Backbone:
């Protein structure tokens, strides 16, 4: 068996966590729940970065004319 340093070691749970983080980029906690076999949506919601998901929506919002810099 190969000798790995502490920072090179990983477990199956690390792989599952990485997959959950990748799936969470869809912004769909139900998809995370289904694919990671979580019994609670609350567990799956921990993978979702709400601010990362909201940023694109906020950037395309049209500001009222009263807020225009012109």
Residues:
């Amino acid at each position: 068996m190969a000798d790995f340093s502490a920072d090179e070691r990983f477990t199956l749970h690390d792989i599952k966590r990485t997959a959950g983080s990748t799936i969470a980029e869809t912004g769909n906690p139900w998809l995370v729940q289904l694919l990671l076999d979580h019994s609670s949506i609350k567990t799956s919601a921990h993978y979702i970065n709400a601010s990362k998901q909201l940023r694109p929506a906020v950037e395309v919002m049209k500001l009222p004319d009263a807020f225009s810099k012109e």
Remarks:
- The mean pLDDT is 82.
- The two ends are 67 Å apart (CA to CA).
